[in-house]
Amino acid sequence: MALNLHLEMVRSGVSRKRLSDYTGIPVRTLGNKINGKTEWRLGEMKKVKELFPGASMEFLFADARASDAKTHATAPPPNVEI
Q: What's the predicted TM-score (pTM) here?
């Protein structure tokens, strides 16, 4: 599951529909990717990242399944001051 992406979407007020429209990924497919049922492609991850300029791709997809092993971050997200 792309938990960090989901949390960032909630924090930023970005709906799945808006993310779908921006990326071209159908809403149902996007839901499957966010829930970890379908792997992300590198190009999709880059496009999603564009909507969240304050977050790194490594943070957004830290716990997501990626079809390219090089895109799957294993490091924990950076500390965030609140």
A: 0.73
